[in-house]
Amino acid sequence: MRWPILILALLAVLLQYPLWIGKGGWLRVWEVEKQLTSQKEANLKLEQRNTGLEAEVRDLKTGYEAVEERARFELGLTKPDEIFVQTPQSK
């Protein structure tokens, strides 16, 4: 009577293996869910950055104020007969 119980127990363990450890098992599902969550967070950050860049491109295409501001602060350009004064900021 002992052999059938051992065989059934072994069969139950063998049937559980694919469920927990196999290619599509729960452990793999949990791992993929963690990766999905982290990728969604990264995508959200990139979407926010892209939105800001899109607004900046739109400003550069439509208005001269953004172009002038960039020329002044990034390139140090000034208008004719204009004096540029820069004051240091204290921290």
From TrEMBL:
Keywords assigned: Cell cycle, Cell division, Cell inner membrane, Cell membrane, Coiled coil, Membrane, Transmembrane, Transmembrane helix
Membrane topology listed for this record: Single-pass type II membrane protein
Classification via InterPro entries: Cell_div_FtsB (IPR023081), FtsL/DivIC (IPR007060)
Coiled coil: 36-70
Short name of any one Pfam family annotated for the protein: DivIC
Cellular component, GO annotation: cell division site; cell septum; plasma membrane
Ranges facing Periplasmic side: 22-91
Localization of this protein: Cell inner membrane
Matches recorded under PANTHER family: CELL DIVISION PROTEIN FTSB
Job description of the protein: Essential cell division protein. May link together the upstream cell division proteins, which are predominantly cytoplasmic, with the downstream cell division proteins, which are predominantly periplasmic.
HAMAP family (UniProt xref): FtsB (MF_00599)
Protein name per UniProt: Cell division protein FtsB
Source species: Zoogloea dura
Taxonomic classification: Bacteria, Pseudomonadati, Pseudomonadota, Betaproteobacteria, Rhodocyclales
